[in-house]
């Protein structure tokens, strides 16, 4: 029974992270709603399946940044270098926001990080509050016209090939690590996400 609430609230948390990254470049969640939901689901499933594996738990943030960068590059046509810059920046900003929220929670409500970790209910409530605050702040920033909204320069000639290579190499590398640790479920989840990006990339290139 732990699976459903964990993945549900983690998915909300992941979606808030995606919104933060999108807002940096003046995109709305509605610009890529269903792909964003897919990526949020992948992130939450990774958190659940790898939470007991210390090595993979440390590796997950980098996989999440890669997924965010591919979301920007493949679906929203942001140049790949700007995609990674925005993904790292947005990820760092959201983690910092979570840390500040935790400190405020400790100072105002006397609820520490240890309390949140010890009680799943408190953890879920904390995720909901932080996610909702992130949504509200991003909505305000977007309505004020804040963010890097200028048109990007033309992408370099072989960028689709580079993106495809990044997807394949990342999938193979992470896949080999997961197989060695027998974490097959997470391998399937990540592979599905990567195949999705490859299909979208091919469709866009063939339609040109």
From TrEMBL:
This is Uncharacterized protein. It comes from the Bacteria. It comes from Paenibacillus phyllosphaerae. The chain crosses the membrane at residues 6-25, 32-49, 55-76, 88-112, 124-141, 161-178, 184-202. Keywords: Membrane, Transmembrane, Transmembrane helix.
């Amino acid at each position: 029974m732990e699976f459903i609430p964990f993945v549900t609230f983690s998915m909300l948390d992941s979606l808030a992270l995606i919104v933060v990254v999108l807002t940096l470049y003046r995109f709305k969640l509605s610009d890529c709603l269903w792909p964003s939901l897919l990526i949020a689901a992948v992130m939450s499933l990774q958190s659940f399946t790898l939470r007991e594996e210390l090595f993979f738990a440390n590796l997950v943030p980098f996989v999440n940044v890669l997924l965010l960068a591919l979301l920007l590059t493949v679906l929203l046509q942001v140049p790949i270098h700007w995609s990674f810059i925005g993904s790292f920046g947005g990820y760092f900003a959201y983690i910092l926001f979570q840390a500040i929220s935790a400190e405020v929670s400790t100072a105002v409500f006397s609820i520490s990080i240890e309390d949140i970790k010890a009680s799943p209910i408190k953890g879920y409530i904390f995720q909901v509050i932080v996610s909702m605050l992130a949504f509200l702040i991003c909505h305000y920033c977007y309505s004020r016209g804040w963010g890097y909204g200028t048109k990007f320069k033309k992408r370099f000639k072989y960028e689709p090939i580079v993106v495809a290579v990044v997807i394949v190499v990342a999938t193979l590398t992470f896949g080999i690590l997961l197989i060695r640790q027998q974490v097959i479920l997470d391998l399937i989840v990540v592979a599905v996400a990567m195949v999705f990006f490859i299909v979208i990339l091919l469709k866009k290139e063939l339609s040109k």
